[in-house]
Amino acid sequence: MTANVQPTLDGTAPPQSADYETWLAVVWPHFIAAAASGRTFTCYQVADINKLPAPPNPQAHWGRLMTLLRDEGYIRTAGWACSDRPTTHHSGVRTWKGTTAARREAAA
After folding, report:
1. DSSP 81-99
2. Is residue 39 part of a domain?
3. Is residue 5 part of a domain?
4. What is the CATH number of the domain that holds 72?
5. 15 near 53, Cβ under 8 Å?
6. In the chain, at which end, N or C, are there fewer CB atoms within 10 A of the end residue's CB?
7. Which stretches of 1-108 are DSSP H helices?
């Protein structure tokens, strides 16, 4: 069974990775770089700016990624904002900020 994938604004389907581990290896460095920047960000902002592929299960894997980054000590919660994602109608989303560990990882 394939998950429903939200089309992009031009009507095409976003690229999607075949398995979670492959997808994680692709997106992880972009989120570490965002965390190391010192700026507050949302998951969607990082994905959109870097044109990252959708995970195999978008409903679960984006949140799992952010939980892994937090649990590994790379990010911490910074608050809430209105989402920039076109399909959310400005719903509230968590914002994140990088930690010292993220700055060290990016410098390595």
Report:
1. EE---GGGTT-EEEEEEE-
2. yes
3. no
4. 1.10.10.10
5. yes
6. N
7. 20-36, 43-49, 58-71, 100-107
Sequence letter at residue 59: Q
Range of the domain at 99: 20-107
Residue 15 is predicted with a pLDDT of 58
Residue 61 within a domain: yes
Q: 48, 41 in Cβ contact below 8 A?
A: no
Q: What is the pLDDT of residues 45-72, one digit of tens each?
A: 999 999 999 999 988 999 999 999 999 9
More confident residue, 17 or 52: 52
For residue 85, tell me if it sits in a domain.
yes
Pairing of strands 92-98, 75-82: antiparallel
The structural domain count of the chain equals 1
Could you tell me the two tokens for 54? 């959708």
The pTM assigned to this predicted structure is: 0.77
